[in-house]
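User: Second chain of the day. Same drill as before.
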Amino acid sequence: MSDDIPECRICFDIETPDDPFISPCHCKGTSKYVHKSCLYSWRNFNRDSIAWRQCMECGTEYTLYHKYPMETENLFIDTKNPSFIYFIQYVSCIIFGFVIWMIETQDDYLAIKMLDFNKTLKEPSLLTYIKTDELSPQIFYFSYTMFVQSLCYYLYFALKINSSIKRKEIYINKIKNQYLCSMTSSLQFIIWYYILVWNQQPILFLNLASFLSMIEPFMYYKLIKKHNKIIKYLNQENEEEVVSFEHNPIMEHQSLLTNDVELRNIIIED
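Assistant: Same format as last time:
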């Protein structure tokens, strides 16, 4: 092949209208040009290595153009260590549950009376067990704190998603089932409270509430894991293109901005 005709540095073929050349880095000479398709295949083959983001010959990082804005990763806690989520949830509920219990003893158990709409339930009532038994208030206020904390967390999750996710329609379609499942699990506390406590089954409620509270962090974990999986999918499926250093609209725009700032500084100095 003639030295005057540029060739692809990967497949050594010439440029075609269907597969044009780009110059993705600072390489010169025979390494300057590469087919878009060849570079795409090379980067996909090396997706988990440094060759995915930069030229292995000159070390220049590729300038990428994405079809959609990239989603922010790590909006929430990493799920590689679920035991950390369990630990934080249990410890916080034990501490805050104890604090609420102490406040309740001084405030004539206002939280329970509010749940009962200030009605006096038939005996055996939950309030009687809370006042006379040692274990019952520990179970109840731990579970109550987990319930309130869960509602706050899912509200925060929804607000965070609304403000941070760019491609909301796709994201919501993929996350909605897991979110509703987690939310329903959290609402079990209040649902069973009115089914059992209002039908004089406080002991059965306390046993069920303790079980539901123990599995609640697992529902957090499942939701966050699903979220991270969706974010990874959205970013990986986001079509991207390596922009050529020759006729690079992104770099040209940045250069124009830089030149404009420099021109303004010269005018000000004069």
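The longest helix spans residues 202-236.

User: Great, on to the next one.
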